[in-house]
Design goal:
Layout (H helix, E strand, L loop, with lengths): L2 H34 L19 H9 L1 H6 L8 H9 L7 E5 L1 H4 L3 H4 L5 E5 L5 H11 L7 E5 L2 H5 L7 H17 L3 E5 L12 H6 L2 H18 L2 E3 L1 H5 L19 H21 L1
Parallel strand pairs: 1-2, 1-3, 3-4, 4-5
Helix pairs in contact: 7-9, 9-11
Length: 279
């Protein structure tokens, strides 16, 4: 057998081995991919996780609101039907919208402003970003003469995540400017004080540092003064000598009871009259 024949057969063996090795490599890679990367359609989407705030009550609240945060962040569905009913009726003379969070939501306006065309558009737990989402639907579309904006306490608490003081003020300012551009007189209310005098008040109080409330209120008051907007100072009328909400005005340290609303009502009425006279 010649040298050339031996060389040819050796080369054929080398080539055949290379092909086999390549096939094995491709098969192994395919097997790994099949094992490690299942069909995306079969993968489950993990439930969104909201980071802990360190406050048990707030963590529970935020966890319970995941569906709302993702499906209807501004909760536009809450008042959509009621707004449609108002739109079909005759324009109300002297309509005022009270726009806010649970402090407004819980306020039975008819019990404190009998005979007035005052409309409640408060939603419990909301922050200023959520309120901005629904401002056109729940305020502008109702064509009121004035809007009383009470917001910020839930931003400080972090209901929808951490918020800087300047961002709270900016959101309230945006609402006020939207109102003004639609010939609606804005009334910007102070954030109410809070207290820790009862067992029910401890968590709410811890979530809302007194100094932050003071700082945001100061910034809101300055904004109103610079822009000739009526500032409604609930805080000064409801605070005690310790700088906290008077104990008898809220059992849970945050949400006013009847005694609290009886203080707020004439202050709101005076602010509405002032805003109306300035138009």
């Amino acid at each position: 057998m010649g040298l050339a024949s031996i060389t040819d057969r050796s080369m054929k063996r080398v080539l055949l081995c290379g092909v086999v090795i390549s096939c094995v490599s491709v098969f192994s890679a395919t097997e790994r991919a099949t094992t490690q990367e299942p069909d995306a359609a079969k993968q489950t989407v993990p439930t969104p996780r909201i980071p802990s705030t360190g406050f048990a009550g707030l963590d529970t609240y935020r966890a319970s609101r995941i569906a709302m945060f993702t499906d209807d962040f501004g909760q536009l569905a809450r008042y959509r039907s009621a707004n449609d009913t108002l739109a079909k009726g005759a324009p109300a003379k002297g309509r005022v919208v009270f726009f806010g969070d649970s402090i407004t939501d819980s306020w039975k306006l008819e019990n404190y402003f009998a005979g007035s065309a005052y409309v409640n558009r408060g939603i419990g737990g909301q922050t200023t970003p959520q309120m901005l989402v629904r401002f056109r639907q729940d305020v502008i579309a109702l064509a009121p003469k004035s809007v009383v904006i009470l917001a910020g306490t839930n931003d400080i608490a972090g209901n929808t995540g951490p918020m800087r003081n300047e961002d709270i003020v900016a959101n309230v300012a945006t609402m006020a400017e939207l109102a003004t551009s639609h010939r609606i007189a804005p009334i910007v209310a102070s954030i109410l004080p809070v207290h820790n005098y009862t067992p029910r008040s401890q968590d709410f109080f811890a979530q809302r540092p007194v100094q932050r409330i003071l700082d945001v209120n100061r910034a809101l008051k300055d904004y109103c003064a610079k822009n000739r907007i009526v500032y409604l100072d609930y805080f000064s009328a409801m605070v005690d000598e310790k700088g906290l909400l008077r104990e008898g005005l809220a059992e849970d340290g945050l949400h006013p009871n009847d005694s609290g609303y009886k203080i707020m009502a004439p202050l709101a009425e005076a602010a509405i009259a002032k805003a109306s006279a300035a138009r």
